[in-house]
Design brief:
FAD/NAD(P)-binding domain; 13 helices; seven-stranded mixed beta sheet; alpha/beta; Pyr_nuc-diS_OxRdtase; FAD; single chain; Enolase-like, domain 1; disordered C terminus; globular; oxidoreductase; Pyr_nucl-diS_OxRdtase_dimer; five-stranded parallel beta sheet
C-alpha cells in the first residue's frame, strides 16, 4: 500500500468516453492531468452499450433477411449459419472493440492513468483504494452509469433478471425473453432477439415505443413494431414472478413465460462511494449533485471545483453527448482555475440534440421535439405512400415530419420512422445546427429515387403552409404559389 501524494491541476475520475475527452482536452491545454479508473477498462458503449447492441442488431437483420427469402416449409442445408453462431460473432466483435478501446486508454494516458477506486476526503483531495492520494485543483467526475435493476425485482427473480449489462455477456443466445421497458434499448433488443428466433414479448408503461413525442411518428412506430413482436403498451401494472425455468410476465392481456426478464428501465449515474459532499458538492434530497444555478451550462457542481460529464451529468446518456461534455467540462474547469497559465482554449458549444433508435426501421428525433414546438410551428409530413424509394422498399409505414418556424422558415427539428433513418437524422441535425431554412433546403439537390427525397417532399409541404420573407421572396401562408424568384 502506497501513501504517496500525486499533484495535478485536474483529476479526471473515470476513463470512459467522457473521461478520455476531458483528459485529452486538459492535457492539450497544458494542464497537469491524471485519469483515475477502478476498471475494468473499456467504455460503456464498447462493453454493454451502443456497439454490442448494433452488432446484435446487424446479426438479427442477416438472419431475418434469410428467413424472409425462404419459401414456407423450406429446410436449410446442413452446416448453414445459425442464430447462435451469429450471436457468438456479435460478442466477438464486441470483445475486439473493447480490446481496442483499452489500448487507446493506455496510449492516451500512459503513466498518468491511475488504477483504483477513488473517494473524496477533502475539497482538493481524493484517496485511492491502494493508499495513494491525488491532490488537484479541479476534478471531473465521469464515472459512467449502470443499468437500473430494481431491488424488488432482483430479490424476486434472482439470476433470471438481467439487463444489457448481463445480456451481452451470455455465451448462449437465450431461448426466450420477457422485456420490461420499451424505450430505445428495450425496443432495439426486443426486436433483435425476436428476429434471431428468440421467443420474445415486451411490455412498457408508456403508451408509445421509444418515448417518441410526435404523435404521428409514435403511432406509426407502435403499429409497425406491434406486428414484429407481441407487446403491451401503456400498462401501468406490469407484474413479474419467478416460475420454474424462468419468469412469468403479466401486463394487461399479455402473458409471457421466459427464461429471462430483460429489464430495460434506463441507466443511473455511478456516483456511489465518491463521498462528493466532502468536496463541497451540494446534494439534493435524493443525494444527487446540484449543478451550479449561476452557470447551468458549465457542468459545475454547486459549491465546489467538481465538474460532471457523460452519464454522470444530467441529460441523455449518449456517446456523442458524453464526448462533448468531457470536452466542455475540461474547458470549464480550466477557466474556473482562472490563473491564465493555459493557452487559448477554443470554444466548443453544445450541438443540436439528436437521438436514434436503430430498430430497422430507425426511429429518430432531431432538434426541437414535437412537444416543445412553438404553437405556430409549421409541420411538413410525408409517408412511405408518397415516397418513390419507400414504395420500392415496400415500406408504406415510413413517415417523416419536419418542423419549421413560421415567421422565418428556419428549420427547428424533425421526427421520423424510416429504414436508414440514421442517415436522414444526421443530415437534418446538421441543417438545424447551421440554421437552414425551408427555402434554403429546397435549393439543395435530392437524387431520385432515394429516401432523402422524403425531405424534399416534406419541405414542399411546409412551404405551402408557412409564410417566409427572405431575399425578396414572399409566400402566402395558404397559397401553393410562390411570388418572386422561387420556383412554383
Amino acid at each position: 500500500m502506497s501513501s504517496s501524494i500525486i499533484h495535478a491541476d485536474v483529476a479526471v475520475i473515470g476513463a470512459g468516453t467522457a473521461g478520455m475527452h476531458a483528459f485529452s482536452t486538459a492535457r492539450r491545454a497544458g494542464a497537469k492531468v491524471v485519469m483515475i479508473d477502478h476498471g475494468p477498462l473499456g467504455t460503456t458503449c464498447a462493453r454493454v452499450g451502443c456497439m454490442p447492441s448494433k452488432a446484435v442488431l446487424h446479426a438479427a437483420k442477416r438472419w431475418s433477411t434469410l428467413q424472409a427469402l425462404l419459401s414456407p416449409g423450406s429446410v436449410l442445408p446442413a452446416g448453414h449459419t445459425t442464430p447462435q453462431q451469429l450471436w457468438t460473432q456479435a460478442l466477438a466483435i464486441r470483445d475486439e472493440l473493447v480490446a481496442g478501446n483499452v489500448r487507446q486508454v493506455h496510449q492516451l494516458a500512459a503513466e498518468d492513468l491511475l488504477r483504483g477506486s477513488a473517494r473524496f476526503v477533502a475539497q482538493d483531495t481524493v484517496a485511492l483504494s491502494d493508499g495513494r492520494r491525488v491532490q488537484a485543483r479541479a476534478f471531473i467526475v465521469a464515472t459512467g452509469s449502470a443499468a437500473i435493476k430494481p431491488a424488488a425485482l432482483q430479490t424476486a427473480l434472482g439470476d433470471a433478471l438481467i439487463t444489457t449489462d448481463e445480456l451481452f455477456y451470455l455465451p448462449e443466445l437465450p431461448r426466450s425473453v420477457a422485456v420490461m421497458g420499451l424505450g430505445a434499448i428495450g425496443l432495439e433488443m426486443g426486436v433483435a432477439l425476436q428476429r434471431l428466433g428468440v421467443d420474445v414479448a415486451a411490455a412498457g408503461r408508456s403508451a408509445v415505443v421509444a418515448k417518441v413525442a410526435d404523435p404521428e411518428v409514435a403511432q406509426a412506430a407502435s403499429t409497425y413494431f406491434a406486428q414484429q413482436l407481441p407487446m403491451a403498451l401503456g400498462e401501468k401494472q406490469i407484474t413479474v414472478t419467478r416460475v420454474e425455468g424462468g419468469v412469468r410476465m403479466q401486463a394487461g392481456k399479455l402473458e409471457h413465460r421466459a427464461q429471462y426478464l430483460l429489464a430495460a428501465l434506463g441507466r443511473a449515474p455511478c456516483l456511489q462511494g465518491l463521498e462528493m459532499a466532502l468536496a463541497g458538492v451540494q446534494l439534493d434530497d435524493q443525494g444527487s449533485p446540484v449543478i451550479d444555478a449561476a452557470q447551468p451550462g458549465s457542468l459545475r457542481c454547486a459549491g465546489s471545483m467538481v465538474f460532471l460529464a457523460g452519464d454522470s451529468a444530467p441529460g441523455p446518456a449518449l456517446m456523442h453527448e458524453a464526448g462533448h461534455e468531457g470536452t466542455l467540462a475540461a474547458q470549464e474547469a480550466l477557466r474556473a482555475l482562472g490563473d491564465g497559465d493555459w493557452p487559448h482554449i477554443a470554444e466548443r458549444h453544445r450541438t443540436t440534440s439528436m437521438s436514434i433508435v436503430f430498430s430497422d426501421p430507425d426511429i429518430a428525433e432531431v432538434g426541437t421535439r414535437f412537444d416543445r414546438l412553438p404553437a405556430d410551428a409549421v409541420i411538413g409530413t410525408v409517408t412511405g405512400k408518397g415516397s418513390g424509394r419507400s414504395k420500392i422498399m415496400q415500406a408504406p409505414h415510413h413517415v417523416l415530419r419536419m418542423y419549421a418556424e413560421r415567421s422565418t422558415g428556419r428549420l427547428l427539428g424533425a421526427s421520423l420512422l424510416c429504414e436508414g433513418g440514421e442517415h436522414l437524422a444526421h443530415q437534418l441535425a446538421w441543417a438545424v445546427q447551421r440554421g437552414e431554412t425551408v427555402e434554403g433546403m429546397l435549393q439543395l439537390p435530392y437524387y431520385h429515387p432515394t429516401v432523402e427525397e422524403m425531405m424534399d417532399t416534406a419541405l414542399r409541404d411546409m412551404r405551402r403552409t408557412c409564410k417566409v420573407r427572405n431575399g425578396g421572396v414572399i409566400m402566402d401562408a395558404h397559397s401553393k404559389r410562390w411570388e418572386g424568384t422561387g420556383d412554383a
